[in-house]
Q: What sequence folds into this?
């Protein structure tokens, strides 16, 4: 069969890499892909939100399954479009994607169906939101309603920071119409963890848990990013907690969407805080996490294509998903200046000097005319390794990472350190 993967990040490279392992798969196309996917798939130079042209390409290439990576094409209705074309596609519809694309929608859903989450209030007036912040102590969380590339949430430790975030979102419109409304929430304390689940709208099967690191610098300093690294499994999140979150959050969320006549199919991502009162939802995402996917898929033993097809055909209950007991650590290498402004076009050296069992998932890269990889984004690579223990996986990934270089590259040195110290 032929599979098409939409997206250009390390998450999509990881999906393509895993899909290529399936004996069912003959060819893989990536839209638009990157330098890494170019070596194992056919990159098609189309924007992920250019839905009609992607549809034409899928028909022309006789694609049997489409897998959507990023949130933007999902929010643009790519699944709805492909369903009309009668081409199997993995991911939620535009309406179902609201669980990620609208913080207001998600908050209302969780409040209505009593899914554990922080207390919060929705505002569509800047003045009312400002008055609320003036009257409440920090720390407090300010969230833009719409999609903001993972940068629309501010955890403000001081009132001035909260007021500035609110002004940026609702007055300066740094995220455009995504900031027409905001959600202001209590700031939860505890350990953060990500738990994803496959669902066909009825059956819900959790993946293995993972932790990501959102701040750009060690010790969780600096601004939020799209994610600077991840690892799986976290030692503080056992199978009992996985079952609890599945029963109190993931299954109720899928049932709630069905109750609202918005069936949810695909992968549902729950970003969680483990509070003294139990796990609570910080956010839902309507797709595979990035960088969590890069630390999760290397542990998957079951054929990913079998799972994706089972979701699309409503046969997930017939699938038994198996995982390796190995630990996995992924570290993001970023361009100088990220998550602010940065330069691109630098050659990436050392990719041919890695151990055979080290994995490199490309993100912001492009293939030069000389056949070499060049930087082409903020998050450039995710270097990943597995091991029998977290210490082994961590040592292996950092040992290999030091062999790679590009101008101004930087990365966190504390990914998974809390698991081994």
A:
């Amino acid at each position: 069969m032929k599979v098409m993967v939409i997206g250009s990040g390390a998450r999509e490279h990881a999906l393509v890499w895993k899909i290529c392992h399936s004996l069912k798969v003959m060819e893989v196309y990536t839209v638009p892909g990157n330098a890494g996917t170019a070596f194992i798939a056919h990159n098609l130079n189309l924007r992920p939100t250019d839905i009609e042209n992607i549809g034409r390409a899928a028909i022309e290439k006789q694609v049997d399954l489409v897998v959507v990576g990023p949130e933007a094409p999902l929010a643009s209705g790519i699944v709805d479009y492909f369903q009309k074309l009668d081409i199997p596609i993995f991911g939620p519809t535009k309406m179902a994607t609201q669980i990620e694309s609208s913080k207001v929608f998600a908050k209302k859903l969780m409040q209505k169906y009593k899914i554990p989450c922080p207390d919060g209030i929705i505002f569509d007036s800047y003045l009312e939101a400002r008055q609320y912040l003036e009257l409440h102590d920090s720390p407090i969380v300010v969230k833009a309603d719409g999609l903001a590339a993972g940068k629309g949430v501010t955890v403000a430790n001081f009132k001035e920071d909260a007021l500035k975030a609110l002004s940026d979102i609702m007055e300066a419109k740094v995220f455009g119409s995504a900031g027409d409304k905001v959600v202001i929430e209590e700031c939860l304390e505890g350990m953060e963890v990500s738990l994803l689940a496959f669902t066909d709208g009825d059956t819900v099967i959790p993946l293995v848990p993972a932790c990501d690191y959102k701040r750009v610098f060690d010790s969780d300093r600096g601004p939020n990013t799209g994610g600077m690294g991840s690892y799986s499994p976290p030692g503080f999140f056992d199978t009992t907690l996985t079952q609890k979150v599945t029963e109190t959050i993931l299954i109720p969320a899928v049932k709630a969407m069905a109750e609202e006549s918005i069936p949810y199919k695909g992968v549902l991502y729950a970003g969680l805080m483990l509070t003294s009162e139990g796990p609570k939802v910080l956010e839902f995402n309507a797709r595979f996490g990035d960088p969590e996917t890069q630390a999760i898929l290397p542990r998957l033993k079951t054929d990913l294509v079998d799972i994706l097809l089972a979701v699309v055909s409503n046969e997930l209950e017939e699938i038994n998903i198996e995982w390796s007991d190995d630990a996995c650590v992924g570290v993001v290498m970023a361009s100088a200046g990220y998550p602010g402004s940065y330069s691109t076009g630098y050659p990436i050296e050392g990719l041919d000097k890695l151990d055979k069992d080290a994995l490199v998932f490309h993100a912001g890269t492009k293939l030069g005319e000389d056949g070499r990889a060049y930087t082409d984004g903020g998050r450039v690579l995710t270097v990943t390794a597995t091991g029998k223990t977290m210490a082994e996986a961590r040592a292996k990934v950092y040992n290999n990472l030091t062999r790679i270089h590009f101008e101004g590259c930087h990365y966190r040195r504390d990914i998974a350190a809390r698991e081994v110290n």
In short: The domain at 327-419 is CATH 3.90.600.10 (Glycinamide Ribonucleotide Synthetase; Chain A, domain 4). The chain has four domains: 2-91, 125-180, 191-318, 327-419. The CA atoms of residues 209 and 242 lie 8 Å apart. The first strand starts at residue 2 and ends at 7.
